[in-house]
Amino acid sequence: MEKEGLKFRRHRGKNDSQFVCTLLCPRFPIGVTCAAVFGFVWLFLLEHPDPISIPHYDLGVKVFAMSTLIKLLGEPMRMASQILLYPRIRVILTMANYVVKGNNR
Predict the structure, then answer these.
(1) What is the mean pLDDT of the segment spanning 66-77?
(2) Is 53 helix (H, G, I), strand (E, B) or coil?
(3) Tens digit of pLDDT for each residue in 10-31?
(4) 50 three-state secondary structure
(5) Which of 11, 20, 49, 98 is geometrically suited to a Cys-Cys bond with 54, CB 3.0 to 4.6 A?
(6) Which sequence spans correspond to the domains of the chain?
């Protein structure tokens, strides 16, 4: 699910808001499905590492899946602002993303 690849040609025949909804609505359900499938594979089908060297493997898999879903919840607003050309919203969301992630670059 690419973020920056949305500068492609606009869909003709529909207004922008309908196009944005069609493009962004399935992202979160697809993300939930992928997180569930990959979480199941990591927890039940793959071999677990040594519990002494990596004591909280199960918790780590669940936290990683949840962090992915939280990031997917914020992406539609950012992408909609990019498609509909609202730079102020995009700047605010990018700033909030850096504050939450704690990037000090």
Answers:
(1) 80
(2) coil
(3) 444 456 667 667 777 788 889 8
(4) coil
(5) 49
(6) 14-46+54-101
